[in-house]
Design brief:
- By secondary structure, this protein is mainly α.
- It has a domain at about 65-200.
- About 80% of the residues lie in helices and about 0% in strands.
- It has helices at about 5-15, 15-85, 95-100, 105-120, 125-145, 160-180, 185-190, 195-200.
- Helix 2 (about 15-85) packs antiparallel against helix 6, helix 4 runs antiparallel to helix 5 and helix 5 (about 125-145) packs antiparallel against helix 6.
Amino acid sequence: MSVQTVSQLFAWLNRNSGAIQALGSVVAVGVTVFLARLTAKYVALTSTIAHSTKVQSDSITELRREAKASAAKSLQAHALRLGDIVSFLPKKNPPQNVLRNFNLLSEADVAELQRLTQVAGGDAHRDTNRAITALRWLLGLVERVQKRGTSTGYVLTETDERDYEASIRTLVESLKGIRTAVVPVIAESGGSPLDTLAGRPRDE
């Protein structure tokens, strides 16, 4: 580009500086408007995402609460069933024929008690652990008795009798404790404890 051409370009710019400034202002306004709209869309999108995230989080929280309440009701029903089974057993000095023919409890009952407690949460863990220990001891005694033939039999030692009585007592207390511990979890979902629905006290 020659010196003359450059001089002509500067001369033209000087003559049209006003128009060029006006055009620049228009472009600046246009860019500003575009950026403002883009920012508004971004803010709206961010707000929508935040709202969707909150709704999703609330839904997950509600589902977890309902799952806990459902597990708590099942746990209470399971504890009621186990309590009824235990009530069939003598509180002390059980006859061998009772233990030999006893088949109402199994390791599956223990596993279900543990699983429901983990899902339901709350304050039932301590009583559940006590109940599980007592149930497994009782199942072990029943297994030992049933392995012996009817001709030889199984003679309960003083320790067996003492531990049996303690296990039955622990089961009664801990199963009652479980039923009580899950009541707040059930009430949180607006449900009714099964003890109330059954219309009978469970303090035995």
